Amino acid sequence: MARGHRIDATPEGPLVISSDAEKITKTSAAVALLKTLGAHPDVEKVQASKTMRAGKGKMRNRRFVQRRGPLIVYANDGGLTRAFRNIPGVETADVSSLNLLQLAPGGHVGRFCIWTEAALAKLDAVFGTYAAPSTERTKNGTPYHLPQTMMANSDLSRLINSDEVQSKVNAPKEGSKPAVLKCNPLKSASALAAINPAGPTIKKRAAEAQAAAEKSKKKAKKAAKDIKDLGKKYYKTMVAEE
Question: How far apart are CA 36 and CA 10, in angstroms?
């Protein structure tokens, strides 16, 4: 219900129906079954939610979007898939090949599932139990087992703070030197001197050399300007004499 399914009128959850429903071949009979089970309001919700898709998906043959309806899980297909395939939002799935994208669309668990009695009875054979392995599925060549928790108590904070664990943990060290913020040697002269005693001298010589280079560059630029002005003055004098 928190996921948006309309299941107020359904008799139970998970909803299990007779295996005779797997022999339904007509869509009208399928709709009548959903109405009898109280699951048809969920189909009406799907029909009312059909809207135009936003974006360029409309040009890619995906014009409309709608909500998900009930999922029918069966064991033997005696015409059930043909009967339910034309009902909006209703999907069917074989219990031997359940799809996580159908059981939890969008990664949100809580899909409204309608199980046939044969499908529910076949779950132990497909996935096995905690006591017996699966008879139909294998993993790495061995029969599939249901995953079991490794911890009897999942409260990690309670385990860590328990007397049994704390009695074996080393005591915290005392008198440790506090952390000191390190200075950047490229910005701090004292930090540079601590790493390289000759660093300040080298830095000073580099600064003096740079200042001397800039000074000589300015002097050369001024000399070139004076020569250029002198040439212009000489040219004007020659033109005036002519």
Answer: 9
CA separation for the pair 34, 43 (Å, rounded): 9
- By DSSP bridging, strand 15-17 and strand 138-139 are unpaired
C-beta of residue 75 within 8 angstroms of C-beta of residue 98: no
Query: In this structure, what are the phi and psi dihedrals at residue 199, rounded to the nearest 5 degrees?
Result: -65, -50
Q: Does residue 130 carry a pLDDT above 90?
A: no
pLDDT in tens, 47-79: 999 999 999 999 999 999 999 999 999 999 999
- Tell me the two tokens of residue 170: 């080393």
CB 96 within 8 A of CB 102: no
Q: Count the residues in the chain.
A: 242
Domain residue extents for the chain? 15-143, 189-241
For residue 157, what are its two tokens? 């904070």
Token pair, residue 211, equals 């200042």
Cα–Cα distance, 163 to 171 (Å, whole number): 13
What is the model's pTM? 0.63
- Check whether 132 has a pLDDT greater than 80: yes
**Using CA atoms, how far apart are residues 128 and 134, in angstroms rounded to an integer?**
4
- Taking only the tens place, the pLDDT of each residue in 154-211 is 888 999 999 999 999 998 888 877 888 888 988 888 888 888 998 888 888 999 999 9
Architecture of domain 15-143: 3-Layer(aba) Sandwich (3.40)
Phi/psi at 238 (5° precision):
-65, -40
| Residue 214 to residue 147: CA distance in whole angstroms | 76
DSSP secondary structure letter of residue 88: T
